[in-house]
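step: validate -> pass
step: tokenize input -> pass
step: predict -> running
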Amino acid sequence: MSAGNDFNRTGFPRAESGVVMPKKKVFVSGCFDMLHSGHVRFFEEAADYGEVHVGIGSDRTVKELKGRYPVNTQAERKYMLEALRHVKACYINSGSGIMDFLKELKRVSPDILVVNEDGNTPAKAQLCERLGIRYVVLKRDPRAHLPARSTTSLRMECRIPYRLDLAGGWLDQAFVSRHGAGPVLTISVEPTMEFNERSGMASSSRRRAIELWQTDLPGGDIEKTARVLFSYENPPGTREFSGSQDSIGIVYPGLNRLDYSGEYWPAKITPVNDEEILRWIEARLHLVTLDPRKSDFRVRQDTRVTPARVRTLAAAADGCWRAILSRDEKEFGRQVRASFEAQISMFPRMMDANVRTAIQQYAGSALGWKLSGAGGGGYLVLVGHRAIPGAIRIKIRRQNL
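step: predict -> pass
step: emit ->
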């Protein structure tokens, strides 16, 4: 990670006359719960750019984004950060969501906004462009000879994975697949970071799994385990079912093809745990953070589910499956995008101006794209062989030993 050619290691811009100019103002924002060496390294590198001002998420905002309150209260976090030598000042953000710092940003009026990769969003980049603020994305590189740290790894809250669907999402809903059979492709994702709530990563199903098993999935018959989780999340009387791809995608390791035909449970599950294929997928997936879905978002409004549209979705998911098995990255990207467009044709509320703007920003560097879930926010999933600056990389959970 480099501070660039404009600055020396103290954060002062170089002047041709040799005169040291006043420090520029740097703004950073985040939760910063359970302070660890990774946080300190981030502040240290942000300080390479100037005087660091920190906006921390309030306890209420952390609960909204992460589904839990922080271990340390906002007052404790502010106190600890202000004690760090790399931090000039700390503020408790007064807004909500991932853009909760807008009022504090205006108050500080910084020259530079610094984020790490999982804090990078198109909305932040656009805000900086509009305000004339330099936007810098840092990688999560630990200090030399120190281990990589994250709040998630320190909490060890659980090792239960998340789920990401690659294509065919919605076919696990009986009211969709009764119009035509087709597959949903899912991967089980290691909890290398704490993905935001309401982001399409099966976070609600994961919470139910934590209620059942606390920190680890049980051993034994994996289909039986997935059925237990699905039944627990959808008790008798449930009106809107959480699709079974969520519980299956969490419990089954690797890549899985789930073939649906008008029922809540797939007629067939085809697992793929080939190491070369899993690595190939990991190398081509990139996630960009969007705002989480609003709690009152209703994606099923204005639905237009027809047999023809369902067939188009099923064909795209099947094409995506073939592209993965043959490791054809261009076709993989094309079919992921085709699946997403088929979903939008049935559920137009999945697309809005913010999602469209984010896609436009990355369309030139990606082979395909989709949302991580049913729309309204979460993560923009990009397919591409080349590294996409500022994007999050995921790790697929391997087969249980």
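step: describe -> The two ends are 36 Å apart (CA to CA).
step: cleanup -> pass
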